[in-house]
Design a protein that fits this description.
Blueprint lengths: L1 H29 L13 E7 L5 H22 L1 E7 L5 H7 L6 E5 L3 H7 L5 H4 L2 H8 L4 H4 L3 E2 L2 E2 L2 E2 L6 E5 H6 L11 H15 L2 E4 L6 H9 L17 H16 L7 H9 L3 E6 L4 H11 L3 E5 L15 E5 L4 H14 L2 H11 L16 H6 L2 H8 L14 H17 L4 H13 L4
Parallel strand pairs: 1-2, 1-3, 8-9
Antiparallel strand pairs: 3-11, 4-5, 6-11, 7-9, 7-10
Helix pairs in contact: 2-14, 2-15, 10-11, 11-18, 18-19
Length: 438
């Protein structure tokens, strides 16, 4: 009897496991995400880790974004967002490891896969209702929607980002006999104009920091190369096309009137009126404009230069919103915040107060959105035009993403600044990264 009873219990237990597994499988296959009920009388707190809150030029705009949400949708629905200034862009990792609730992170692109694998960030398709998600994503640039995807799923919704822009000092151009309203379009023209500025004014003509990271990838793609293979299983920046692109930059750096220095140093040099052209993100636009007005010169701009007759292929700077809510109610609260900051009002604030691109491009022509702002700041049209051909910046695969990104950047710096052979340097770095691939 005891043996029979034990057998029956075992059979029942096994049946229960099979039934639960089947239910779990069925639930998983339907992909139906359900949100919990929010209560305005008992608001749900959402922690938002943001590196923009730590930048003096971005802090006020990001604080306005959070405050407007809390005062409107948050108050109505029952959500309170608390911003955490992530100065190092690493604090979220430490706090997750310490067991703190980290709900939303303004996350950079390059290490998103590593965070997905080790820190519990979730795909939007897995936690937010499909109909609501699809409806919300309407109006956002289709190219922008691809930027935070890994293996076909959105682990980050593009949030604050830009394409590269060539900031131009109109006075130095005119002093050198150049027309800032007809800026250089190719890298050959960049070199020629840089040399002319140097010769005529004594000032450096061009600035692009070798350690900038993201602009480098656009330069490689524009010449027909690539950084990662299409399947993201190997690095592929040692090709002849990539080597030719970096070799061009090396020549420009040493022989084209280029200024040495880091991004911060080149930015300061440009704002001081001592640099003809500087390649960076539109997030610096407000600072550049104020500097030009204070210095008595006019700010112009140009798109990322191209090789010959082939249009350039810009990549994106900036961040995604990566999320990791731990229950249905928190998921509902996070979803309300995401919808607001990536909606019409959110991007109106992000562009006008911080300087990044509006991913909802129709706002640029909307009188209730950004039409007046874009008309007063025409450089944004350059970036909006580039959205039509943007390609995603590399999201390095696996847990070694940080190390891979560093090897790549170090190789570019060495290739551009040192006497080392570009082909050998890039090939060695490519092989090193491939040895880290998952």
């Amino acid at each position: 009897m005891k043996r029979l009873a034990k057998g029956a219990l075992a059979l029942m237990a096994m049946s229960s496991i099979v039934w639960l597994s089947a239910c779990g499988s069925e639930s998983k296959s339907t992909g139906a995400a359900e949100l919990g009920a929010l209560d305005p009388a008992n608001p749900t707190k959402v922690s938002f880790y943001s590196y923009s809150l730590a930048y003096p030029t971005m802090k006020a705009g990001m604080e306005q974004l959070i405050k407007e949400f809390n005062d409107t949708i948050g108050k109505e629905k029952g959500v309170i967002v608390e911003g955490v200034a992530d100065t190092t862009m690493q604090q979220y990792k430490a706090d997750i490891s310490a067991g703190k609730e980290v709900d939303v992170v303004q996350h950079t692109f390059s290490t998103l896969d590593s965070s997905r694998l080790s820190l519990g960030f979730k795909a939007y398709e897995d936690i937010f209702p499909k109909e609501e998600l699809d409806e919300h994503l309407k109006g956002i640039s289709s190219n922008a929607l691809e930027l935070g995807k890994i293996d076909g799923k959105m682990y980050g919704l593009a949030f604050t980002f830009s394409t590269p822009i060539v900031f131009i000092n109109g006075k130095l151009f005119e002093d050198a006999g150049l027309d800032p309203s007809n800026p250089p379009k190719t890298w050959d023209e960049i070199k020629a104009d840089s040399l002319q500025i140097k010769q005529k004014t004594g000032k450096d003509g061009f600035g692009l920091a070798p350690n900038n990271g993201w602009v480098t990838e656009g330069l490689i793609l524009s010449n027909g190369g690539q950084v990662l293979a299409k399947d993201r299983k190997s690095a592929d920046f040692g090709s002849d096309a990539s080597v030719a692109a970096i070799s061009m930059w090396k020549d420009l750096y040493h022989n084209g009137g280029s200024a040495p220095g880091s991004d911060a140093e080149l930015m300061e040099q440009f704002m001081a009126g001592n640099l003809g052209m500087y390649v960076s993100s539109t997030s610096l636009h407000s600072g550049m404009k104020k500097a030009s007005e204070a210095g008595g010169w006019k700010l112009y701009g140009a798109a990322l230069p191209q090789f010959g007759d082939t249009p350039s292929v810009p990549v994106n700077s900036g961040s995604v919103l990566a999320v990791r809510p731990n229950d249905p109610v928190k998921t509902a609260a996070v979803w309300e915040f995401v919808k607001f900051v990536t909606g019409d009002r959110g991007y109106t604030i992000i562009t006008s107060q911080i300087g990044y691109l509006p991913l909802r491009t129709a706002l640029a022509d909307d009188p209730n959105g950004l039409k007046d702002f874009v008309e007063q700041n025409p450089l944004y049209r350059i970036n909006l035009d580039q959205l039509t051909r943007i390609q995603p910046v590399a999201i390095w695969p696996g847990d070694n993403a940080t190390e891979m990104a560093k090897v790549f950047t170090d190789a570019i710096v060495k290739s551009v600044m040192a006497d080392d052979d570009v082909k050998s340097t890039l090939t060695a770095a490519q092989n090193e990264i491939n040895g880290m691939m998952p």
